[in-house]
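Notes from the pairing session

We agreed to fold both candidates in a single pass and log them together. This is the raw record for the first candidate, unedited. Please don't reformat it; downstream parsing expects exactly this layout.

Candidate A
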Amino acid sequence: MGRMGRKSKREKKNEKTGDLSWGTKNKREGYDVVVKENAAFETYYKAQKIVPQDEWDSFMYHFKEPLPASFRISGHRNQGKAILKIMEGEYFKALTEENAKPECLSWYPENLAWQLSLTRKDIRKSEANVKLHNFLVSETEAGNISRQETVSMIPPLVLDVQPHHKVFDMCAAPGSKTTQLVEMLHAEEGKIPEGLVIANDSNNKRCYLLTHQLKRLPSPNLIITNHDASIMPNFHIPTTGGGKEILKFDRILCDVPCSGDGTLRKNFDVWMKWNAANGASLHGLQYRIVRRGAEMLTVGGKMVYSTCSLNPIEDEAVLHRLLAEAKGSLELEEVSEKLPGLKFVRGLSSWIVMSRDLTAYSTPEEVPESMKHILRESLFPPKVEDADKFHLERCLRILPHHQNTGGFFVSVLKKVALLPWEAQTERKPVTENSSADSLVMPVGPVESGKDNGPRSPARKRQKIRGFKEDPYLFFDEDEELWPPIKKFYGLSDEMDPKLLLTRCKEGKKKNIYFTSPTVRDLTRINADRLSIINTGIKMFARSDNKGADCGFRIAQEGALALMEFMTKRRVVVTREDMSMLLLNDDMDTPPEIHKFSPDAAKQLHEIETGSTLMECYEDGLHIVVVAWKGKTSVRAYVAKCDRIHYLRLCGADLSKFEVNKFAVKDNQVANDPEENDHDDEALMDTENVANEVKIVPNNMDVTHEIAAEKSVSEAVIPEVAIEKGVAEDNVKQEIMEETVLSESVDAQKDMTAL
């Protein structure tokens, strides 16, 4: 009787949420029926005329269909091209069904982005589909493939980031676009770039998710911050004279929170919650963010403004308001030539403003007094005679039926002169008494000699909630840990120890991190005035009492950056040596040195016990693995996902790491045919539970909104990322709380040291 009558957590949860539950109520019943209809949505967008009349049915049909999965090959270019060759030759050719074959996105450089129309049922149909699925999952975990919606890949491409650029991603979480920016910054492999990427998000929990995502592509040129982008403090940088000045960015990505009606194909609750007032409620926030971005942009720099909404109130209206106030200091750029083959429609110069009840207003004067605090003048399009000078037609709107994607809006702004309110403020050197508040320009331009009327009360500064971060303690020139590390690994004098830092103020230092000079300067100057969540890549980890003369081993995360300065303890091996090392994952019986090729064995015998780098240069590949050289054996120090990735590049047999459920099923049939039907049903139930998509109903009337990037198509490539578009108030209930953020508080803090 002990547990009889006690309800499971799932049953209690379904009772609590009632009809609002969008998950499975019973794993054998399948998913709740989602009614993909919203009359107000259709009425509103027919009035906006963003879709030609003869394409309307196709537009709505695609919105109601599942969103295809899409992915891109990320990481280092030489390994990326090798992965592409393996994927096309070994996995794509094995697909027999025409509709299952991936489609290459022609507008993405070097054929590195693909779209895949496989569902869960399709994956289970054939062994080839399962193998492709396992390959994508494995490479995604290793950081070499990024699950990313097709239209989400566009903003970084049109931003044109170069290795020397200082880049700012204002609303970065979950990090898929930020990862692209980091890749572009590291376009010149084997060399640490001069520039940097600062990734910011207003939600503290999402910042830890962002950290987790970006650790798949470690970069010493990255800083993660936690601030409200609409009132983002300035970053200080040192001057040659020992003073400080305000940093201006070369490139800014402003992918703002939005109503997310372009994500209807994956966020089903938007069908139920959408109304015409959503855009108006977010317009002000979006304007404040993009305006703050324009202030932080250097003259000659570029900024992308993008949303996953089709609503002109959130798109063209925001840009029109900013361009009008900028008075010629900002210009929209033509970027369509950077995306050859991409289908789109041009931006609008005229649109209709509607209230929640779909009452249309053509001019601000038509709006009743009772509605003017909601339907403000800034929501309306420019006058006909002024429309041409704003060039809103240079914006791009991607519609779902164009190439079977989600909806998206993207534009590129170039700053050609100081903003009017910047020009009125003389740029003075930053003093110690300067506060963050004094460095943020007031909202709205101030014209001298003009009475602007009563001002609204100052906006209350958002309180940033989160964990108190451990300090960033950079090495001094006389750091006692440095000499033995430098001697043991033969590090050249070109490596500046002042670029190394720890997060441990007292006691033994467990990990040592490495940053670029620019990141070091920014972190040191701004650590006390900005909320910096994470920076640096782990280069060394403590490994006491292992018979080595140095108490720190090399971390795989920092191996490539360390190679530039390392002159000792580097062993070049053959492809067969590397395969043998990685295939042997038994910690008790590592491969013995005499089993390596004669040349590799000779090199290993010449070095002392301790951490070493095993390098393979064959057929254009460059594989570097951290290993521990003992007295008679060598053991690889790499994660399982990286081990599988490197073995795949070596062309080794991966059968010991993969489970072929078709072979298992055949064995079950041979051993017990009568039990097979029940086993197969149980297997499918397990898959349904494991791949279950939970979409939580939300309130679309809040100002900060974040869309969960979860869809039925995610069965193809799991993703912990969550895109913007669903209410931020519900983030705690979403997928990231069930993954990374379901850990304890200590685990979340430790994530910054991974």
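Candidate B (folded immediately after A)
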Amino acid sequence: VSLSSAPTAVRAAAVTYANLLNSQNDNNVKMIVLERLEEIKTKHSKIVQELLMDILRALSSPNPDICKKVLDVALDVVTARNVSDVVTTLKREVQKTTQDDNSSEAKGMVYRNMLIRAIHNCAVRFPSVAESVVHTLMDFIATDGGMQVAIFVRAIVEQYPALRSAILTKLLSCLDEVDNNGVMCICLWILGEYCDTPDILQEAFDDITTQLGEPPFVVKSKDKEAADKAAADAAAPKMITKNVVLSDGTYATQTVYSESKTPVVSDNTPHLRKMIIGGDVFLGSIIASSLTKMCLRAVDVGVDSAKAKSMTVKSLLIMCGIVKMAETTVSAQKSSLADCSERIALCVRALLDPKATAALKKTLLTEGKAKFANFLKVVKEKEGKDTKKEEALVPKTQPDDMIHFRQLRSLAVQGGDLDLDDGNDLARATGYVDGGSLLSNELSHVYQLSGFADPVYAEAAVTVHDYDIRLEILVINRTPNTLSNLTVELSTMGDMKIVERPQSQTIGPLDQITIRASIKVSSTETGHIFGTIVYTDASTLEKGYINLNDIHMDIMDYIRPATCTDEVFRSMWAEFEWENKVAISTSIPDLITFLKHIVQSTNMRCLTPHDEKEKGSFLAANLYARSVFGEDALVNVSVEKKDDNDGKLAGYIRIRSKTQGIALSLGDRITSVQRGLPKVTAQ
């Protein structure tokens, strides 16, 4: 394929790749085949479109990485012609994850979230399939992939007003099945923002208040102790004594300890009330906000005044119960009590005070939807920019380049003269096509190991290629004598292992030699390479030793920018146990400039969109990267511009990872680069 662009040859290669993808069981082979298909897709997308359904058959693989690669290749070639077939296949795969749990156990929630994101992508790009997709996916809002479904429904409700009525009705029917706090928050926000007809608004209000029940939302301590004691008594083993007849006809007494089965407690308490009683302060503030919006909108959409007043009174009682719960319940969100109380107090004033109602009504009912619509617009523009960057290919052949036709040249020239195309063929075969500016890159990784006044001068050129480090050590004999048994003895610190040790050499007077060594790296962390040069002067037979400078291996050689969803980021943040907290101390005065500097210096990707036009005194962002070893690195930047600190930035940067090495190494990197912007030298 690299040597021919004929459609027949490319099609034959693509068909062969598709057959290999579905016939081979080796995951490495499948990944290589998918990478080759991705390369073909950049130049011959129509040929890959013809094989799209064959490529999607590889979703049956139990490896989630294979499935993710398949979806990445497939979604880029989806068109209006084949989108219905693709969406049908994806919906069938989503339904399989619930019908047959044994086959999808290895993939788990990750695979289902990937499928839901893929369907979301298709629905946003092709509105014709949105209606057929959204109702199918809403059946999964109570499963472990409910967060992705809720995010998808939230975007569809905003982007397609014609589907709002049907979606809200379906959402109300599924609301009592939702048992995840985050999903419930999104569902309540949708109902508070988009219920704009009297029937749906009253139905939504009645459903929410019915599931909440009557206040107070606090479990009495006596009832809780009685329930715990009853459960402990039921679980305690019981001793049973009975008479039995033995095999010889005699009687005996047998004592048996029996453990009763754990009784199945039929708790009919709705999930929403359980969440509030459990101490979810944030969910309580969202309930207060949603009920307030419904009450303010009730009269405008045609609800009679008596019903609207009844809704207002019931909402006020619920808000008071939520504040009482937040004050008395001990939970992990106890620190949010002040924010929750302030938010609910604002909602109460908006319902009771006519002046506050006139001032806040427009903000509460319209600003939320407007900001969310702007957020979706920013996300879409960002995705469009990323797509354009990927599509912008640098031309490999310039207009003035010479074209050689081998078939038109004489045999005499082909016999022994230099062929000008040999270099191009060799470059294609070795993958050296994009090898521009390699010299400057190599020179930036040259380290001086010894001083100019030492008898032996040494410097090392370090080449890092994923798991391997290649050292090319240039050794120069600066004495007029021959040096024998010259050995570069290397040692490492960190998760590095010397695979190929340098051999002993003999160097003549004022001569030089290049010695090579290979080091294998097993994890992402900062390492050090140090050593000594040992030699014998052939004329005086004296031994000499030269201690070499350390070679500091930078973690940035292994870090690659990556992307993930907010849900995956939060789950990894809660799971990872190693954390490094770095205090911000910088001379950079601007928040956005500081964030860009940290992102560029750490080779990470910012997952939080920011509008540079908006000015504020506080900024929070999540950064994500992945190492070449598959290790995840999470960074949270929380910085504010304090007026009482001469306008300087203050805050913390928190790093979390599964291994200690990444957390410590990234912390050292951030500490060294956060002081200020690098100085640009004039050319």
